[in-house]
Each structure stands twice: as C-alpha cells, then as structure tokens.
Amino acid sequence: MLADSQLRDRTGWDCGSCRRNGLEVKRRCGFLPKDALGETRIVWGRKHARSEECPKSFVTGTSLALVEEFFVRRRLGIPETTDTEARTVDAFLILQDEMEREERDGTSQH
C-alpha cells in the first residue's frame, strides 16, 4: 500500500487518477453524493485559503472564466467600467488582493 504522500505525488489533483486510487472520499470530491463525503474537514490549504472539498470539483467553470478575464484585462490594461457586473467586480477585487499578497510575500507563481 502506498503512503499518503506517495499517492498524492502519483495522483496530484487529477480526477481519474484520484478515483483509480480510491481517494475521492478522502479528498471529499464534490462530484460524490453529500452523504458519501463523511465528516467535514479541510482537504486543501495555502496560507489563509482552505477548502473542505477537492479544489477540482469546487472551482466552477464560471470561477475559471473570471480568473481568465481578470488576467486578460490586466494584461491588456482594460479597466472595469460601470457596465461591469457587481459579481465580476467583486471577483476581480478578491483576485487583485490575493495577487498583491502573493507578490508581497515573494511567493507569486506567475
């Protein structure tokens, strides 16, 4: 039997590998029925951010689209306008704060 760290290295956060190695319950996969997830606990964390569900199932397509839009706007210098939805502005503010915190801590991954 592989140790937890060996399974983590082998599967990363790849859904197929995770399922083949029986980790979907341990990682609290959001694609499972709620009653199969067991007791709530943190399964992923980085500094002050944490998730009680596998990040692969927790992050939605909408979330990814907002992250992509944030970086495209930033790269091209496109400002938010009064036509930007409040939800989008809120997401951009959170992303900006997180990016500044990473840069301040010297741990930026871009």
Structure report:
This protein folds into 2 domains: 4-57, no CATH class; 61-105, no CATH class. By secondary structure, the chain is mostly helical. The chain has a two-stranded antiparallel ribbon. 49% of the residues lie in helices and 5% in strands. The longest helix is centred in the C-terminal third of the chain and has 20 residues, at 86-105. It is elongated. A hairpin with a 2-residue loop joins strand 1 (44-46) and strand 2 (49-51).
DSSP strand count: 2
Please tally the helical runs, counting DSSP H or I stretches of 4 or more residues. Answer: 5
Radius of gyration based on Cα positions: 17 Å
Main sheet overview: 2 strands, antiparallel
Which class of secondary structure composition applies to the elements? Answer: mainly alpha
What is the oligomer described by this structure? Answer: single chain
How would you spell out the order of helices and strands? HHEEHHH
- Distance, first to last CA: 36 Å
Principal-axis shape: elongated
Count of the domains: 2
Amount of beta strand: 5-15%
Average pLDDT level: 84
Q: Unreliable segments (pLDDT under 50, ≥5 consecutive)?
A: none
Strand order of the largest sheet: 1-2
Helix content: 40-55%
